[in-house]
Each structure stands twice: as C-alpha cells, then as structure tokens.
Amino acid sequence: MVRIRFLRATSSTPTRTLRVLAVAASLLPTAAVQAQRAPIDTSAATPHLLPTAVVEAARLSRYAVGSRRTTLDSVAVNQLPAGTLAEALSRLTPIYLKNYGPGQLSSITLRGTSARHTAVLWNGFNINLPTLGEADFALLPVNGATRITVQPGPASAVYGNGALGGTVLLSSPVQWGAGWRGQAQADVGNYGMRAGSVENSFSNEKLALRTAASYREGQNDFPYQERTIDGLVERRQTNAAYRQWSLTQDATLRLGQHSELMGAVWLTDADRRIQPAIGAANDNAQERDQSRRLFAGYRHVAGRHETGVRMAWFKDILNYRSNTVAQSNSRVRTSQIQADHSLQLRSNLSVRVGGEAQHFAARVDGYGQDLTENRFSGYALVRYDPMPTLRLTANIRQAFIPGRRPPLAPTLGGEWQVWQHDTHTLVLKGSAARSYRVPTLNERYWRPGGNPNLLPETSLGYEGGVQHTFKPIPTLSLVTELTAYRQQVRNWVQWLPGDTVSYWSPRNLRRVQAQGIELSSELGWQPGRYNLTARAAYAYTRSQKVSGYIFDPDPVGVQLPYVPLHTVAFTTRQSWRGWQLLTQSTFTSFRYTDASATTFLPSYFLLSGSLGYTFHTRSTWSLTALVQGFNLTNLTYNSYEARAMPPRNGVLSLRVSWR
C-alpha cells in the first residue's frame, strides 16, 4: 500500500542542471540509494498527473502494530556525529549495553535476552555477524544512518532471524526537495581522543544524495584504581588504543512517475588494542574489524500494487592476535536478496507478501574448513484498519534451512484509540509473537566443541500497553507510555564444559523467562524562542532460567548474569536563541556476573552534559562551539567485570553547518 504525492515541477536553468549532474557524477560511483518510507495515506487519489511525482512506500514497521518503538532524538544524536551507536543508546535510553571499555566490545541486552537475540537491520537487511550472531555496537557509527529506531520484543515475522529480544533499525529516509545541506565537526578530548566527521546531502524532486564520513581515535591511557592487598593502587590503562573510520554513501533516483532506483554503500574499519582485565598481565592483544556493505534496490508502483526487489552484499573480516594466539582470522561473505509485492485490497486493507534468500561463505580458522550455507524464508504481512481508531496486523514467516526447520513465526498486533478529547488522547496497544534464532556458525562448527545438532531457539512473547498524549496548548505536549511484557525462550543455547573432554560445547539446555515493565514520558515545551524537550524512561527487567536439563549446573529462579533489574534514563534538551544545553543521566542497578548469582557489580549513576552556542555567520551558514563532559561526578564503576572505565573526561567540538 503506497502513497503517491505529486509535486509541481519547477523550471531549471542550465547552470542548475549542470550543478546537479556534477554532484551526481561525484557521488554516484558509490551508487547508494535509500527509499523514503513514510506512513500510508489510504485516501490518496490521482485524478490527474503533474510533471513530477514523488512515490513513497510504506515502512516495514507499519506491520508492527501494537509493539513499542523508540526513535532516538536526532538532535541529541547529532552531538555525536563521530560517535558510536553504543554511546548513543547508553546515554539516551535505559537500554543496558555490556561495555568492555571505551572503543571496546559493546553488546546489547534487550528485555533480559542476550546480544544474539537482537536483530540489527540496515536498510532492511540483517547485519549481525553469521559467525557470532550479534553486532558490536562500538563498531557502528551513528552517522551511518539518519534514523535509529529500537523495537524491543519478539518480531521475527516482520524482521526475520534473531529478533527474539528486539530489533534495532538503521535507515536513512530521504527528505525530498531539501536542496543542499551538510555539516562538518572536529572533536578533541582527554586521553588522546581525536575525532572528525562530515556529512553532505542534496535532494530535489528526482535525485537525492547523501555522503557521510567519520574518523575517531584514542589512546585510552586513563587512570583507574586497582584493589590490592595493600589497598587501592592507581594504575594507568595500557593496550587500549583504538582507531576507527567509516564512509557512507546513499542515493535515490526517480525513474519516471512510478519507479525508483536505490542503493547504498557503508564501509567501516577499526583497529583496536584489546584492553586487559584489571590485575591481568598485558597480552598485547589486538583486533582488526572491517565491514563492507553494499545495497541496491528497485521499486515500482502501479495503481494499488507495489513491487520491490533489493540485494545486499556484505564482507566482514575479524582478525585477532596476541602473545598467546599467533593469529586467528575470520572472513565471511554474505549475499542476500529480498523481493516483495504489496497490494491495496481496500482503502483500509493491505497485504504484503515476500521472500528472502541468503548465502554465507565463511573462511574461519576455528572451523578447519571453508563453509557455505543457504537460508530462505517467506512471509505474509496483513494490515487492516476496520475503523479510523482501530489498527490491526497479522503476520507470518517461515524460514527454511538445510538440515533443520525453524518453527513458524506468527505475530498478531493491535492499537485502539479508545478516547480522544480536545487535550487528551488515549491509545491501547497489544501484541503476541513467536520468534526464532538459528544457531550461529560458531555454535555449530567451531573446532573443537561446535555442535551441528543444535536446535533453533524459539520465543513466545506477549506485551500490552497504554499511551497517553496530553496537549493543553499548541506549545506544550506530554506523551506517556507504559508497557508490560512477558516472554519465554526455549532451547536457549549455553556453552558448558564437557563431561569427559577438556573443551566447552554449546547445548540447548535452558528455558528462560523474561518479564518486566517499561515506562517513558516525554515533555515538549516551546514558549517563544525557548525550547525544552525532557524525556524520562524506566525499565524493570526480570530474566531467569526456569528449567534446564540435569547436567546444567546453574540454578533456576535467579537473575541472569549482566541483566540489571532496574535501569533509568533522563535526558533534557534546551535551546534559547543561539544557546543549547543537553543533559544525560542514567542509572543501572547491580548486575550478577555469574550464573549462580554469587558475585555482582554494584549499581552506578552516570551524568553527562554539553553546552554550546551557535553563531549564524550568514543566512545559510552557522558555526557551533560545543563543550561536552562525561562521567561528570567522576564515578569509579564497571560495566563489565574487571574492565576499567574512564573517570571524568571532556570533549571540545567545533561544527560548521550549511544549507
């Protein structure tokens, strides 16, 4: 189901035409396109044609009715153009990320599940490593996409493999007719931190281009304290330096009035020294991570029909070496293709059917041989709005993998606007979903220990919630949402030491139950030239093993390791004239560090903030000076056991913007 919006064509001079062609020639060699996906307007009509048409497709999340979704504040994220997704999520949301240190491995935990249970999609394609089954959020720069959305909860019917605990969606929707705009920023901070970024975009009614690049490095030689028999001793962190860069190219080209061509390129590279544990000897470990991601697609709209074909090719390299490991290399090539067809059956009823094929080619030292694997899945998504205040979805997906068959993954969801007043709106939400995760290549083929007979993990989850909007005057709004959920994951894969052998091996041992509540409230106030946005979010997460086999030594009924029971995030963004002030505070409760719940890390509260002023040099140019401070209370804390985190530190930034 699509919306077709026609724009009246404007005359263009030869000079303007040459300018556009020059930009296209310089940017299109990396051939990148991202189609704009906007909400559906079922009442769209086309009584006559105008010279230029803008065709907008429905977002995939349109079929995720009833599920909670959070889109990161783009203004707050814009303060970190050379930052990582790990930094943005940990500072702006109550989501817990297990962080081994600045620039080090950062893995996500959504609703009490592990990092392998979160699907990360870029332009609709899963970018989790097939070997590990997860993404390192410290390697994902925030300017690789312009929109970052988190949808917690099971949703494999819509998003595919791995979406048990939740899904992170990275996209770059186009703003048509925006002309030229961009920005460049340079950062300098403590402990050898240097960073820079640049982003430039252009769009008219037929062509949209976006280029973004970032670079960052740091020595990470910060001081920390180690507890010894003689008391606390101050040390200086060693072997923690990192260097990262990223390049993104997006482009969209309209082909007539009914079609468009899409493509994208995303290149990332990181060279990291692996920070040793507190009290451990420096092993001089280092890791090289490289990812090459290419995407291309075509979409055609005709009447009530929309057909899309998309292809992606990824190359992921992970090379590790240390004093004890001479070299361990991993290279995986992933080829994917997706095709779908959407049909507007009625003004309030749409159906999308599609399929996906994946091919993995892995050369990993730990496997002892080159491996290839093919995976397929088909799905059907239905959206039905029986009345303007009621929205329903029913989705289903079936995956096919040689040698095993993941379960059928259905989803039901609904949203009902039960009350609307001049100043109040109340919406009820609910969904039920079954999801799956295919065991990773490492879990099945690592030598020694891999278990090729592992079963897919399955999850059955429910959630329900209420959203209230209060808008007494045009300049004031308050949106509050409360969600309660419960889900069980069966055949949870766990690595355990063998009974008769010296190595560890994964097994389908456990049934894990996660339940909790999520509460958020966002206030927006704009009296005159003053602007305030304040958001508070709280998450209560209880995740426990409820049953296991006799040879599983871990107890039942205790909180899983590195799953905090309580997390809180409170952010404010204020602007007045040229001034801007941003504050970020998060609280993370204690976390067990072992499955027996005998050791734990204490809770901690982190406070960060930034203050900046923008000078408008011309009508289309501006200069922003920014001071950012992190861990302002100078707290000593650990996100992961025995991994030091930096004390109070700051960054000075200078940003030039144009449009």
- Assembly category: single chain
Structural class: mainly beta
**Largest β sheet strand count, sense and barrel closure:** 22 strands, antiparallel, barrel
What is the CA-based Rg, rounded? 25 Å
Question: What is the number of E strands?
Answer: 35
Q: Based on Cα principal axes, name the global outline.
A: globular
Counting H and I runs of at least 4 residues, what is the number of helices? 5
Residue-averaged pLDDT = 89
Contiguous uncertain segments of 5+ residues: 1-54
Q: Note the gap between the termini.
A: 33 Å
Kindly state the percentage of residues in helix.
under 10%
What is the beta-strand fraction? Answer: over 45%
Give an account of the 3D structure:
This protein is mostly beta strands. 5% of the residues lie in helices and 57% in strands. It has helices spanning 14-27, 74-77, 85-92, 156-159, 441-445, and strands at 3-7, 52-56, 70-71, 96-99, 106-109, 118-122, 125-126, 147-152, 166-171, 179-189, 194-203, 207-218, 223-228, 231-236, 242-255, 259-273, 286-302, 305-321, 328-346, 349-364, 371-387, 390-400, 409-420, 424-437, 457-473, 476-497, 504-525, 530-548, 566-576, 579-588, 591-592, 600-601, 604-615, 621-630, 649-658. The strands form six sheets. The protein has a 22-stranded antiparallel beta barrel. Strands 3-8-9-6-7 form a five-stranded mixed beta sheet, with no helix packed on it. A hairpin with a 2-residue loop joins strand 17 (286-302) and strand 18 (305-321). The protein is globular, with a radius of gyration of 25 Å.
